[in-house]
Amino acid sequence: MATKEEDFKERFVAVLQDLRSNGGQDPEAMFLIGSLAARLLDRARQPSWAAYKASMAREAYDQLLGDFQKQGNDFHKQGKAKHAYAVQVLAISLIARTQTDPDIRAGNGLLDDMLGFLIAAYRKAEAITPKPN
Description:
Layout: H1 4-22, H2 27-44, H3 49-55, H4 58-77, H5 81-96, H6 102-128
């Protein structure tokens, strides 16, 4: 029977592979990931996703994971698969920071870079979107 760490590693690798191979084919899901991450960064006044995760106290980490679990499950029940996927990606990134496996640690940096790109793309799209008067 697989350990919870082995289960997590499988999920982590699957998410990374999916983002790399299918991310460009689903701009809506990528936009949702970038917008959720950007809102969290803005609320915490952090410059990057990696800095946000690194600055998080254990209590805030536990709270956010609980929020992600509830929100992701709610989205899934509502049939909002892309929203649930966005929450799942950020939750997996959050958990990856706590892992000691060298492959996950390496992948965590790659995922942080991907999330940084998605946050920047979201911010750029927001900057050029006309605002109502």
